[in-house]
Design goal:
Blueprint lengths: L4 E5 L3 E4 L8 E4 L11 E9 L4 E6 L2 E3 L6 H13 L8 E3 H5 L15 E2 L8 E2 L1 E4 L5 H7 L3 E2 L8 E7 L3 H4 L4 H16 L3
Parallel strand pairs: 1-10, 2-3
Antiparallel strand pairs: 1-6, 4-5, 4-12, 7-10, 8-9, 11-12
Length: 192
């Protein structure tokens, strides 16, 4: 059975209204929405012992149990790891938008998702985008904010990264690079 790993491209494309911003990718209101200027991504910093790090930069993500949907699991993980309340209906599945069934194999077995290491495991990851407007003051509130489910041993710190720099800041984590590529490819085609 495939391990279903849930990757959330925690991009929130926010249009700032003077002092307004919201979640993960942010943009001032005096910049056209079609512009990629002044956008930010929220990353999580948390211990990843196998990687040898106590503060590994990555996108909010988690495992999906046997119940629920990927989008529902993504919304739950965003809430648990960032404190933001997101509904599954607000999430855009970038992998489904980008990867057509025609790019699958001839038997239609492959899913419209990212496979993290197809030569070694069957782990798969849909990558979601969340767009939301947020108060500008929240941007500073998120930088360095401690989050996570303490009763489950989670110790997460939030970090804001400029969209144009997120590939180098979080580039050791494949979901960041996957999300970055999907976001820019879909933006270029006009799909998001």
């Amino acid at each position: 059975m495939a391990r279903n790993y849930l990757a959330l491209y925690s991009l929130v494309e926010a249009v700032l209204i003077l002092n307004d911003m919201r979640q993960l990718v942010l943009q001032p209101d005096d910049v056209p929405q079609s512009s990629e200027t002044d956008k930010y991504v929220i990353l999580t910093l948390q211990p990843r012992i196998p990687a040898g790090s106590l503060s590994f930069a990555e996108l909010p993500a988690g495992m999906l149990d046997d119940s629920g949907t990927f989008a529902g699991g993504a919304a739950k993980e965003i809430s648990e790891e960032t404190g933001l309340q997101v509904s599954a209906e607000e999430l855009i599945d970038m992998t489904r938008l980008a990867l057509s069934p025609e790019t699958s194999d001839d038997r239609g077995i492959l899913q419209q998702t990212v496979y993290s290491s197809p030569g070694g495991c069957d782990e798969l990851m849909p990558i979601f985008l969340w767009k939301k407007n947020v108060p500008r003051g929240r941007l500073q509130d998120w930088q360095g904010k401690l989050t996570g489910l303490r009763d489950e041993g989670e110790k997460i710190t939030l970090m804001l990264a400029r969209l144009e720099e997120v590939w180098s800041i979080g580039g050791r984590e494949s979901k960041v690079l996957d999300g970055y590529a999907l976001y820019h490819g879909l933006r270029k085609k006009g799909n998001i």
